[in-house]
């Protein structure tokens, strides 16, 4: 059995962003989620620039870059994985800013 990752381990994240402008979604992966959100919101990511501002509605983390990349690809295929995730996090997707 592998020990738990140390606090110094690099973590990789598959993430789902939602545009506050028109509820468009963006799926990606990164090792720095805060930086990546800034990249999307500042227009560095070409596709994302026209849908700013963005908010993170979901992410999952792993110590494996390959796992994060595979999860991103499975979500981007918009099949069962994507549908299942949207069902699981429906309250987060429908949450209005400031609502509890």
Characterize the structure shown:
The radius of gyration is 14 Å and the shape is globular. The longest helix is centred in the C-terminal third of the chain and has 12 residues, at 65-76. With 100 residues, the protein is an alpha+beta fold. The mean pLDDT is 88. A hairpin with a 5-residue loop joins strand 1 (12-19) and strand 2. The chain has helices spanning 33-42, 65-76, 80-88, 90-94, and strands at residues 12-19, 25-30, 54-62. The protein has one domain: GIY-YIG endonuclease, CATH 3.40.1440. It has a three-stranded antiparallel β-sheet with strand order 2-1-3.
Spell out the blueprint of helices and strands:
Layout (H helix, E strand, L loop, with lengths): L11 E8 L5 E6 L2 H10 L11 E9 L2 H12 L3 H9 L1 H5 L6
Antiparallel strand pairs: 1-2, 1-3
In short:
The protein has 100 residues and is of the alpha+beta class. The chain has helices at residues 33-42, 65-76, 80-88, 90-94, and strands at residues 12-19, 25-30, 54-62.
């Amino acid at each position: 059995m592998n020990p738990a990752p140390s606090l110094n381990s690099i973590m990789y994240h598959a993430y789902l962003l939602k545009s506050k402008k028109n509820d468009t979604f963006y799926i990606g992966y990164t090792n720095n989620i805060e930086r990546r959100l800034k990249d999307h919101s500042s227009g560095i990511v070409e596709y994302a620039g026209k849908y700013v501002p963005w908010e993170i509605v979901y992410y999952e983390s792993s110590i494996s870059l390959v796992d994060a990349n595979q999860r991103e690809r499975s979500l981007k295929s918009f099949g069962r994985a994507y549908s299942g995730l949207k069902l699981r996090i429906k309250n987060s997707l429908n949450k209005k800013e400031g609502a509890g």
